[in-house]
User: Fold this.
Amino acid sequence: MSLVFILLIITLILPLLSYLGYFSRVPRLDNAISLANVALALYLYEFIPYAGPFYVDFTTWVFILMVTSIHLLSQVYSKSYFRNQEIWIGENLFNLLLALFTTSMLFSLEINNLGLMWVGIEATTISSALLLMTEKTETSAEATWRYIVIVSAGVTFAFISIILIYYSIGTLQISSILAMKAVPTLTLNVAVAIALIGFGTKVGVFPVHTWLPDAHSEAPSPISAMFSGVLLPTALYVLYRIYEIDPLRDLFVWAGVISVIAASLFLGYQTRYKRMFAYSTMENMNIALVGMAVGGQYGLIGALLLLLSHSFGKAGAFYSSGSILRYTGNKMIDGVRGLWKSMPETSSALLLSSFAVTGTPPFGTFFGEFLIFYSLFTVHYYAQLVLLLFFVMAAFISVNYNITKMVFHGEAEKNGEEEPVMSGLALLSSAIPLLIGIIYVVVTIGAL
Amino acid sequence: MVGIEYITLIETLLQYFFVVGLSPLFAGIFHRAKSIIESKKGPSIFQPYYDLAKLLKKETLKPSGSGIIFIYAPYVAFGIYSLISIIIPVLIPAPIYFTASADFLGGAIMFSLAAFVKVAAAMGSNSNYSALGVSRMLSFNFLSEGTLITVFFAVSLITATNNPYTTNHFLAANPLQNISIVHIFSTLAFFMLFLYETGKLPLESAGLQELGMIDEAANYEYSGKLLAINKWNSYIKQYLLGSVLLNVFLVPWGLSAASPWFLLDIPVMFAKWLLLIGIVLVVETTLAKLRLFRVLDYLATAFTFSILFLIFTEVIV
Amino acid sequence: MSTFVEELLFPLSSLILVTAFYMQGQEFIRPMIRGQLVQSILLAVISVMMGIITGDAASIILAALLVVLRGFLITYFLEKGIMKSQVHLHEKHVSVAYLFLISLIFVLTAVLIVYSVVFSGIRTESITGNQGILVFPLALFFQGLFLIASRRTTYAQIMGYIEEENAIVLFAVFLLPIPLLIEASVFLDVLALVVISSVVVVEKFTHERVVELRG
Assistant:
């Protein structure tokens, strides 16, 4: 048994340990354990690529890093978020589900078997369903139910794809499938197309995205951050692994472009800020889908860069939205005004993160999107490129217009102090994409 | 050759007069059997004939404002049913004179035509009750006629021809085809349709209550001779549909077209009808009447089954 | 023997579809649960028959699992949920004719597209030797989807979900050797149980449009 195998097992166990650490007398032991998991994930870079019972290459590593970091952030944030509020399912169960949710995501990322990956994706649905309902309201119950039904139906559909892959290749082990270089047959084409619809439900591909805004807007903010930042990318990763077997590039690129167009149109008339960020997530996921579909030196790297920066940026966006919601009690964009006076730190985090998720230079997302656009250019997908450019711009305007309205317009009474942990975390998460962008520029210039 | 044509002529005449002459008898047998099951004595099995004779003697009243269609429609419908009765295999399992006039689909369309004539006449009678019944009838017929046509399609798919005689021969020769999915489900659908068209429970369109009245409403303004013909029409229709159900769907065996043996077809048809009457009686005594708006659900079920399995068969084969 | 069994597969599969339509047409919840029970047992019978055809003992185990988990456990959980609510649960305004016709259009379009465009091109054959039998799982799957989409009650939607699972199992039974399947199927059942119990906790009977979740 190799060291890396043991380390990967440990990454799966650590979230559960951090749940147990919550009971210990040592203060903040749970957060420390989660932090250790992030460090472990970073250390895994030494061992990639690895193929055994688990399959980890550079792409996987980026995703593992994302999941562990956002878990840490959300874990810390939820402590403050729920300080003055009762959790309907109980704090204990909440923490357990959070740990299981993280473990199941890590499991689906790391395992070297498409069937078990599918199991992992289903497990994320189970473990996260009740997390959505932490604030027990009529709307959140409805959103949870829609999430369960739509996503389960979609992922069940994806199982047909797994069956067809097994039927035509005879194995589900990712490393051997990739090594085999399967000849694209019609069966495989069908399997990959079905996977686009099936797993696409969880990624937020256009006609099957409908659960996404409901779940994101009704979940408590730390959970919204997990959903948007890492759950959707995990599903995208699984979709990417299936796509690699038989790249139907045209289909995937068009699906991504159309979803971006749809998301950008929906963004135009949103009246609730968390819902707006949900559509922004859909937009970003589909840009990443386009990047992964084009692949190669620019497309894939661009997608990874975009996803990594976006996960932190969107976490920041939801953390600051959570603080605002706690502070003002209003979900509407029009109901929140003059934040820069009443909540200076949170509003700067909100502004930063809104820039981060819409791809403003010099945030990491900008370079990611830029690389993806460039990759489209290299494969001569001009129509798709023009459409993407136009609608990404439109989305940029809608989001930032609304956010600047919330921050700078109007006056607001200062009726309390900001929660320092919450605003600090929001600020931290939204600054990381900036950091990523700068590191990327430095590294690229250094390489030149 | 002359001899064969001679036999065909006899067969044609036999079939025609059998259908037209004896169709009220089967209705009579049914009513008698039903009464016995309900522990009543019941009317004689010849009661439909007595009714017809009585009505034929009575005066015919024509509602004011009713047009020419009202008077002639029963005769036209009688003609149409007469033609159908020598087109489809309801007694003799071999082609006779007039058989070439239409195929299965043509037969189905002629049933629709007769229904249309009846509707037109009822609308011409200027009565509110008739209009009520007609509107009910039409709102249900869009499903029942669709089912009728798809059922015939389903049957013709098996033999790849639209000729009812070929189908009958094929099914009689290949017993295994009788348990193919498409055949089972189209039989079921056609049986449901038969119950609807002849106004049996759980639909009961024959009753005279306004709430559930469907078919009888179209006859509401008729009296005397015209009513007699209308009633006769419905007896013939019941016999025709029932015989198609028996000869093409349920029990395609037992009929013969050879020279002296075709006379045996008469007792065989009686036996088959007794079987059908038995089945219908079981249905009638076990099911309760559906509410009027449920009739649509009932027909939709029949339609769904017929068309679903029709298309699946197309995919599977 | 095995050809006879293969012949029987078609009527049995179509009976599964009949149960699906039965569930689609029901107003009351309890008959729907019974329909689900019958459907699962038919599935188990088909699994046994495939075991006879392929000579694979594992499909007998699968059948046993199907009966125990779907036939018994899920039915028990669902019925228990009804007991709790203490009413003769039913959904109002279920128009059978309308639902059947729409479902017919939906299922047929979906199946014909998927089947004629996609599966007719797959030249390899399934275990039964007749590619056509895959029509039934596909139709069942889309019927399940339609059941979820067309109904407003939690129970009906769960039933649609279970129907989808059944479709997947049926699909795999016709196409694959068994081992992978048992795990997957058991897992699906566990998922269904969790979904059900979480819903019983929620006790949200119907699902209507919500203003806050629009757009």
Notes: Chains B and A do not touch (no CB pair under 8 Å).
